[in-house]
């Protein structure tokens, strides 16, 4: 049995946009998360740029992405089992402590001038192992903080926080790299991890809506797989997310090439491009709080729109035009990611949600592990413009194909209204 998807007949009022922040535990979690996400973005931009500087290769940037996300591709379901069996808060405290130590190590190597590309590869891989434990617990912990009635709002706000960090972090990191070097970005992330651990200690256990832990038993992983395969509102968003992750979420690799090779704007320009994407994504995440109903068609439309925008960006003649398209692309990207996450979580029974979300996160992060080297290699051998066409074309194709499959199965239908100039042909859910 699965709890029904939380649908409302009208759009929530603007006054309810931040309604989950009324809950004390979530306010503490969200406040620390803002600091942490800004620092994570700072480290991400510094890491990518330092790899590019040390190696001179876009492919090397892609390999770094691969090293960081390949543990998710191989081991993420184990993280889901941990999340269902043990305290989510304890898992997060341990994972954030480990991430802080890794960031501190990277800072020491960079600031002492001993950092090499293989160091970044190795630390990225170990950080990927930490993410395996962190992400499923983080996804499910939100429900313990706010409960089912505020879950959709909290997911949207978490996405908003991530993109707010994406606006501030890359810009700050770009300035740091040019002024004093990227090592300080890693030091900032180490401090932010410590702040996160302290904030988790401040959360009141008595106010958490905890579920009884799932007892150890055989076949728990396959139980999660069968559950996900059997529900269209989980299966199809996960398939779309896989294609989206491999091709569309490698945008950072391609933007590094655009900043370095096409527009020649350096680290500051790369940070600006990341900030512009995050600006649009923040708007997309906030817009998701206004969606009255969660539907497969909305998820697929957002993914297809993102693909179209990347294809348009490939033909951008200058930095100004490219940046403008990136804002809109960021909006479409987060509208898809947030809506898909909400649909999957709201379709899943709480007792099995850790395992289901671990599979979903595995698809997202594992896809990036494969997509980073692939898109980096395409950018080097075909040119970054053609790589951008592929990055947008594949999600667009997947959205169209999934839409046709759902239509054939009767879950979506095609309707026509030739009197309407705005929407002469459109898809509706049954």
UniProtKB/TrEMBL annotation:
Q: What is its main location?
A: membrane
- Cite the GO molecular-function annotations of the record: transmembrane transporter activity
PROSITE patterns in the record? MFS
Q: What is this protein called?
A: MFS transporter
For this UniProt record, the keywords arranged alphabetically read as follows: Cell membrane, Membrane, Transmembrane, Transmembrane helix, Transport
Where it sits in the cell: the answer is:
Cell membrane
Identify the species of origin.
Arthrobacter psychrolactophilus
GO CC aspect terms: plasma membrane
Please state every residue range assigned to the domain named Major facilitator superfamily (MFS) profile.
20-410
Transmembrane spans: 28-46, 58-78, 90-111, 117-134, 155-178, 184-203, 234-259, 265-287, 299-316, 322-344, 356-378, 384-407
Its signal peptide is none
How does the entry describe its membrane topology? Multi-pass membrane protein
Domain of life of the native organism: Bacteria
The record, for CDD domains, names: MFS_MefA_like
């Amino acid at each position: 049995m699965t709890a029904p998807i939380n649908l409302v007949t009208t759009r929530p009022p603007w006054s309810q946009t931040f309604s989950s922040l009324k809950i004390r535990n979530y306010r503490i979690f969200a406040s620390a998360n803002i600091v942490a996400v800004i620092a994570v973005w700072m480290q991400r931009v510094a890491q990518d740029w330092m790899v590019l500087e040390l190696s001179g290769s876009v492919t090397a940037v892609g390999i770094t992405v691969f090293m960081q996300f390949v543990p998710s591709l191989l081991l993420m379901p184990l993280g889901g089992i941990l999340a269902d069996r043990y305290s989510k808060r304890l898992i997060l405290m341990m994972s954030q402590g480990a991430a802080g130590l890794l960031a501190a190590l990277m800072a020491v190597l960079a600031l002492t001038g001993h950092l090499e590309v293989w160091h970044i590869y190795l630390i990225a891989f170990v950080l990927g192992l930490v993410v395996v434990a962190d992400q499923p617990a983080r996804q499910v912990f939100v429900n313990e903080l706010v409960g089912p009635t505020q879950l959709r709002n909290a997911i949207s706000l978490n996405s908003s926080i991530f993109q707010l960090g994406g606006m501030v972090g890359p810009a700050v990191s770009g300035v740091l790299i040019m002024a004093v070097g990227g090592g300080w970005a890693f030091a900032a992330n180490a401090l932010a991890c410590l702040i996160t651990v302290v904030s988790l200690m401040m959360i009141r256990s008595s106010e958490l809506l905890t579920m009884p832990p799932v007892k150890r038993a055989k076949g728990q992983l396959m139980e999660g797989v069968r559950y996900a395969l059997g529900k269209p509102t989980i299966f199809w968003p996960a398939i779309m997310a896989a294609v989206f992750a491999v091709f569309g979420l490698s945008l950072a690799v391609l933007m590094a090439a655009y900043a370095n090779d096409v527009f020649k704007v350096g680290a500051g320009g790369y940070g600006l491009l990341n900030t512009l994407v995050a600006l649009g994504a923040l708007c997309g995440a906030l817009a998701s709080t206004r969606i009255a109903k969660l539907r497969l068609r909305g998820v697929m439309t957002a993914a297809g729109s993102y693909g179209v925008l990347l294809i348009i960006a490939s033909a951008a003649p200058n930095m100004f035009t490219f940046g403008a398209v990136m804002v809109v692309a960021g909006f479409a990207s987060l509208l898809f990611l947030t809506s898909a996450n909400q649909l999957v979580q709201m379709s899943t029974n709480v007792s099995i949600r850790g395992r289901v979300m671990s599979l979903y996160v595995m698809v997202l992060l594992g896809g990036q592990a494969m997509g980073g080297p692939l898109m980096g290699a395409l950018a080097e051998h075909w040119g970054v413009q053609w790589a951008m066409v592929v990055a947008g074309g594949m999600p667009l194709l997947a959205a169209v194909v999934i839409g046709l499959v759902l239509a054939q199965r009767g879950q979506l239908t095609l309707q026509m209204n030739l009197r309407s100039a705005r929407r002469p042909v459109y898809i509706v859910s049954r």
